[in-house]
């Protein structure tokens, strides 16, 4: 019994060992006889699988021992080992292929054309290179064409700019030429005939800005009337134009005719102007300033006494400053028949004097207001050798010399204190551009 047991056990171990070593050759049928050929007719049999269970049995006649089914795991392990071996072999082969391919690519690279790895054969790479080359050439050609197109367009643009500038210049030149010819033709017509201003007016005349009455004269107006002037782009107003005296074109600043208008007025009245443009009026210091500030103006003063004597004074220089400068008077270069009363003497000189009104004392008389004393707004010194805004007297008067006064009028200053004083029937102040030729 002891011998039998040992024999069985050793046979079993040997059978298991032989099974492990010679797994490749193990079949379902058997592992027979080798270790215990003689004494131990041992057999290990794998029985037919029934489902997952493939139990093994060891036959040791007459003994048969059932082995646990887990014993079959050894067979599974060998199968897995076998699979792994196959995988390793395939990977090894794959690596050899990769190496060969890498060598091929390196050979191609030496020829200067190493292309992105597509794994494609050399012939395909050549085709790809050729295709790309032609594509690059095409793009290069397109780029060249585009550059030529840009050059052409740029040339056209420059020509267009040049043409446009030329057009504008030509347009401006032609307009200036038209204006010049219109002005010249009007000037020629007006200075020669001027018999039919309506005929001239009926023609289409370009609208010009009329700074003063001389501009209306220039375009053919010959009737002494009120006209609208624009001496400043922001300011236009009505004025009375004298189109008869000494050729015409005069803008009238002041007029005395009949005493219908009281000239004893305030600063504001003299600033804005007052009266009736067709009769007696003061145009207004602001307007006089505007009319004299942009052009050199001359001043003409016409006087007529109650004896019908008419004289005039002409000043080649006339300018009135703005309100901030108290409408300071600038007057000079006298010529005429009435005498230079505005610049009578060193002590009586109205040139460069401020404007004074009864309510605003800017004069050089320290003890009082010349404007208040002489009932007038004027460029008083201390106080006067002329005052064309004095009271209107219809005949000789006595007392303070507050009537219309012109100190150089024949016989006027000779009157003794307390005696009757002469006055004027008419007085008029008007201006015209210095370089105006009627
Ligand atoms: Ca004073």
UniProtKB/TrEMBL annotation:
Keywords for the protein's UniProt record, in alphabetical order: Coiled coil, Disulfide bond, Glycoprotein, Secreted, Signal
KW Coiled coil (keyword) present: yes
Main localization, broad class: secreted
One GO CC term on file: extracellular space
InterPro entries, per database record: Fibrinogen-like_C, Fibrinogen_a/b/g_C_1, Fibrinogen_a/b/g_C_dom, Fibrinogen_C-term_domain, Fibrinogen_CS
The keyword Membrane is assigned to this record: no
Leader sequence segment: 1-23
Gene3D superfamilies the record matches: Gamma Fibrinogen, chain A, domain 1 (3.90.215.10)
Fibrinogen C-terminal domain boundaries: 204-435
CDD domains: FReD
Coiled-coil positions: 129-163
SUPFAM superfamilies to which the protein is assigned, alphabetical: Fibrinogen C-terminal domain-like
Compartments where located: Secreted
Subunit description: Homotetramer; disulfide-linked.
UniProt xrefs under PANTHER family: FIBRINOGEN/TENASCIN/ANGIOPOEITIN (PTHR19143), FIBROLEUKIN (PTHR19143:SF189)
Name the UniProt record assigns to this protein: Fibroleukin
Organism: Molossus molossus (Pallas' mastiff bat)
């Amino acid at each position: 019994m002891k011998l039998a047991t040992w024999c069985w056990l050793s046979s079993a171990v040997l059978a298991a060992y032989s099974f492990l070593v010679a797994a490749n050759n193990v079949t379902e049928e058997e592992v027979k006889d080798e270790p215990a050929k003689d004494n131990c007719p041992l057999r290990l049999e794998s029985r037919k699988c029934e489902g997952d269970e493939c139990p093994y049995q060891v036959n040791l006649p007459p003994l048969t021992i059932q082995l646990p089914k887990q014993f079959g795991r050894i067979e599974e392990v060998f199968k897995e080992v076998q699979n792994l071996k196959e995988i390793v072999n395939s990977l090894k082969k794959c690596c050899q292929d990769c190496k060969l391919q890498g060598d091929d690519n390196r050979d191609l690279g030496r020829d200067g054309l190493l292309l992105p790895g597509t794994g494609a054969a050399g012939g395909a790479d050549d085709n790809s290179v050729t295709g790309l080359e032609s594509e690059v050439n095409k793009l290069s050609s397109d780029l060249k064409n585009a550059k030529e197109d840009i050059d052409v367009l740029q040339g056209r643009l420059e020509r267009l700019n040049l043409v446009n500038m030329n057009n504008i210049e030509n347009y401006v030149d032609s307009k200036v030429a038209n204006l010049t010819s219109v002005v010249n033709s009007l000037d020629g017509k007006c200075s020669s005939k001027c018999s039919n201003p309506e005929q001239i007016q009926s023609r289409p005349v370009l609208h010009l800005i009329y700074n003063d009455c001389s501009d209306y004269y220039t375009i053919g107006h010959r009737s002494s009337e009120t006209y609208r002037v624009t001496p400043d782009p922001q300011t236009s107003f009505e004025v009375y134009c004298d189109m008869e005296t000494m050729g015409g074109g005069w803008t009238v600043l002041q007029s005395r005719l009949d005493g219908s208008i009281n000239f004893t007025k305030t600063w504001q009245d003299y600033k804005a102007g007052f009266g009736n443009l067709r009769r007696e009026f003061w145009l207004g210091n602001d307007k006089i300033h505007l009319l004299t500030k942009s052009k050199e103006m001359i001043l003409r003063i016409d006087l007529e006494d109650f004896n019908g004597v008419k004289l005039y004074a002409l000043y080649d220089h006339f300018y009135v400053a703005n309100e901030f400068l108290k409408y300071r008077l600038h007057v000079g270069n006298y010529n005429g028949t009435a005498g230079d009363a505005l610049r009578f003497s060193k002590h009586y000189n109205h040139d460069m004097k401020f404007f004074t009104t009864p309510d605003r004392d800017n004069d050089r008389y320290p003890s009082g207001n010349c404007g208040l004393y002489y009932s007038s707004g004027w460029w008083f010194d201390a106080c006067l050798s002329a005052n064309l805004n004095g009271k209107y007297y219809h005949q000789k008067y006595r007392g303070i010399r507050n009537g219309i006064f012109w100190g150089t009028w024949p016989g006027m200053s000779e009157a003794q204190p307390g005696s009757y004083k002469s006055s004027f029937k008419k007085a008029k102040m008007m201006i015209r551009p210095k370089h105006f030729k009627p």
